[in-house]
Amino acid sequence: MTQNNKSLEERINELENVRALRELVDNFSILADKKEVWKQIELFTKDATVDSYVNGDLTSSFKGTQEIGNAFEGFLANFETVYHSNGQHVVSINGNKAEGTLYCRVDLITNENGKKINNASAVSYKDEYVYENGKWLIAKRTSNFVWNDRRELNQ
Prior knowledge:
Low-confidence stretches: none
CATH topology: Nuclear Transport Factor 2, Chain: A
CATH architecture: Roll
Strand order of the largest sheet: 2-1-6-5-4-3
Number of strands: 6
Mean pLDDT: 96
Shape: elongated
Protein backbone atom coordinates (compact mmCIF):
# COMPACT_ATOMS: atom_id res chain seq x y z
CA MET A 1 0.00 0.00 0.00
CA THR A 2 1.52 3.35 -1.00
CA GLN A 3 1.60 6.28 1.40
CA ASN A 4 -1.20 7.98 -0.57
CA ASN A 5 -3.51 4.98 -0.15
CA LYS A 6 -3.09 4.85 3.63
CA SER A 7 -5.62 6.47 5.89
CA LEU A 8 -4.59 9.27 8.21
CA GLU A 9 -4.90 6.87 11.14
CA GLU A 10 -2.60 4.32 9.45
CA ARG A 11 -0.04 7.03 8.66
CA ILE A 12 -0.10 8.34 12.24
CA ASN A 13 0.25 4.79 13.59
CA GLU A 14 3.26 4.21 11.34
CA LEU A 15 4.89 7.46 12.48
CA GLU A 16 4.30 6.54 16.13
CA ASN A 17 5.92 3.14 15.57
CA VAL A 18 8.90 4.66 13.75
CA ARG A 19 9.35 7.08 16.66
CA ALA A 20 9.03 4.28 19.24
CA LEU A 21 11.67 2.22 17.41
CA ARG A 22 14.03 5.20 17.34
CA GLU A 23 13.51 5.69 21.08
CA LEU A 24 14.23 1.99 21.60
CA VAL A 25 17.66 2.13 19.93
CA ASP A 26 18.49 5.51 21.52
CA ASN A 27 17.54 4.20 24.97
CA PHE A 28 19.72 1.14 24.34
CA SER A 29 22.69 3.45 23.73
CA ILE A 30 21.94 5.77 26.66
CA LEU A 31 21.69 2.84 29.07
CA ALA A 32 24.98 1.42 27.71
CA ASP A 33 26.63 4.80 28.32
CA LYS A 34 25.35 4.75 31.91
CA LYS A 35 26.40 1.09 32.24
CA GLU A 36 22.85 0.25 33.35
CA VAL A 37 23.03 -3.16 31.71
CA TRP A 38 20.12 -4.76 33.54
CA LYS A 39 17.80 -1.92 32.50
CA GLN A 40 19.20 -2.22 28.98
CA ILE A 41 18.35 -5.93 28.92
CA GLU A 42 14.67 -5.05 29.43
CA LEU A 43 14.76 -3.70 25.85
CA PHE A 44 15.24 -7.25 24.51
CA THR A 45 12.87 -10.17 24.06
CA LYS A 46 13.61 -13.01 26.51
CA ASP A 47 15.09 -15.17 23.71
CA ALA A 48 16.92 -12.36 21.90
CA THR A 49 20.23 -12.91 20.14
CA VAL A 50 23.19 -10.56 19.78
CA ASP A 51 25.93 -11.35 17.26
CA SER A 52 29.03 -9.20 16.71
CA TYR A 53 31.28 -9.12 13.67
CA VAL A 54 34.69 -7.47 13.27
CA ASN A 55 36.15 -7.34 9.75
CA GLY A 56 33.44 -9.76 8.65
CA ASP A 57 34.35 -12.39 11.26
CA LEU A 58 31.90 -13.45 13.98
CA THR A 59 33.57 -12.53 17.29
CA SER A 60 30.74 -13.19 19.75
CA SER A 61 27.23 -14.61 19.85
CA PHE A 62 24.84 -14.47 22.80
CA LYS A 63 21.30 -15.76 23.29
CA GLY A 64 18.79 -14.85 25.98
CA THR A 65 18.73 -11.87 28.27
CA GLN A 66 20.82 -13.45 31.03
CA GLU A 67 23.67 -14.38 28.69
CA ILE A 68 23.50 -11.03 26.90
CA GLY A 69 23.42 -9.12 30.21
CA ASN A 70 26.39 -10.98 31.64
CA ALA A 71 28.38 -10.37 28.45
CA PHE A 72 27.50 -6.66 28.29
CA GLU A 73 28.27 -6.19 31.99
CA GLY A 74 31.67 -7.85 31.68
CA PHE A 75 32.54 -5.90 28.54
CA LEU A 76 31.49 -2.46 29.81
CA ALA A 77 33.39 -2.98 33.08
CA ASN A 78 36.60 -2.56 31.05
CA PHE A 79 35.92 1.12 30.36
CA GLU A 80 35.84 4.31 32.42
CA THR A 81 33.59 6.06 29.93
CA VAL A 82 31.24 4.71 27.28
CA TYR A 83 29.68 7.05 24.72
CA HIS A 84 27.39 6.21 21.81
CA SER A 85 26.46 8.69 19.07
CA ASN A 86 23.57 7.33 17.02
CA GLY A 87 23.10 8.45 13.45
CA GLN A 88 20.87 7.20 10.67
CA HIS A 89 18.11 4.77 11.61
CA VAL A 90 15.94 3.30 8.87
CA VAL A 91 13.14 0.87 9.68
CA SER A 92 10.64 -1.26 7.82
CA ILE A 93 7.52 -2.24 9.77
CA ASN A 94 5.33 -5.23 8.98
CA GLY A 95 2.58 -5.67 11.57
CA ASN A 96 4.11 -6.54 14.94
CA LYS A 97 7.57 -7.10 13.47
CA ALA A 98 10.09 -4.67 12.10
CA GLU A 99 13.62 -4.55 10.78
CA GLY A 100 16.05 -1.70 11.08
CA THR A 101 19.55 -0.48 10.37
CA LEU A 102 21.27 1.92 12.76
CA TYR A 103 24.62 3.62 12.29
CA CYS A 104 26.53 4.46 15.44
CA ARG A 105 29.89 5.73 16.63
CA VAL A 106 31.03 4.21 19.91
CA ASP A 107 33.80 5.70 22.05
CA LEU A 108 35.21 3.51 24.80
CA ILE A 109 37.66 5.27 27.14
CA THR A 110 40.18 3.37 29.26
CA ASN A 111 42.90 4.49 31.62
CA GLU A 112 46.19 2.81 30.80
CA ASN A 113 49.19 3.75 32.93
CA GLY A 114 47.64 7.13 33.72
CA LYS A 115 46.82 7.87 30.07
CA LYS A 116 43.27 8.12 28.70
CA ILE A 117 42.93 5.90 25.63
CA ASN A 118 39.94 6.18 23.30
CA ASN A 119 38.86 3.12 21.36
CA ALA A 120 36.52 4.61 18.75
CA SER A 121 34.47 2.38 16.46
CA ALA A 122 31.96 2.84 13.69
CA VAL A 123 29.23 0.26 14.08
CA SER A 124 26.23 -0.63 11.95
CA TYR A 125 23.48 -2.55 13.67
CA LYS A 126 21.04 -4.75 11.74
CA ASP A 127 18.09 -5.24 14.06
CA GLU A 128 14.93 -7.29 14.17
CA TYR A 129 12.19 -5.92 16.43
CA VAL A 130 9.01 -7.41 17.85
CA TYR A 131 6.01 -5.58 19.30
CA GLU A 132 5.12 -7.40 22.54
CA ASN A 133 2.95 -6.38 25.49
CA GLY A 134 2.45 -2.85 24.18
CA LYS A 135 6.08 -2.02 23.34
CA TRP A 136 8.78 -2.63 20.77
CA LEU A 137 11.68 -4.89 21.79
CA ILE A 138 14.90 -6.01 20.13
CA ALA A 139 14.64 -9.66 19.08
CA LYS A 140 17.94 -9.83 17.21
CA ARG A 141 20.87 -7.44 16.93
CA THR A 142 23.76 -8.01 14.57
CA SER A 143 26.63 -5.61 15.21
CA ASN A 144 29.12 -4.97 12.43
CA PHE A 145 32.23 -3.11 13.58
CA VAL A 146 33.28 -1.31 10.42
CA TRP A 147 36.43 0.43 11.66
CA ASN A 148 38.31 1.06 14.87
CA ASP A 149 40.66 3.86 15.87
CA ARG A 150 42.68 3.64 19.07
CA ARG A 151 44.53 6.71 20.31
CA GLU A 152 45.55 8.64 23.37
CA LEU A 153 43.29 11.52 24.29
CA ASN A 154 44.89 14.92 24.67
CA GLN A 155 43.71 16.43 27.92
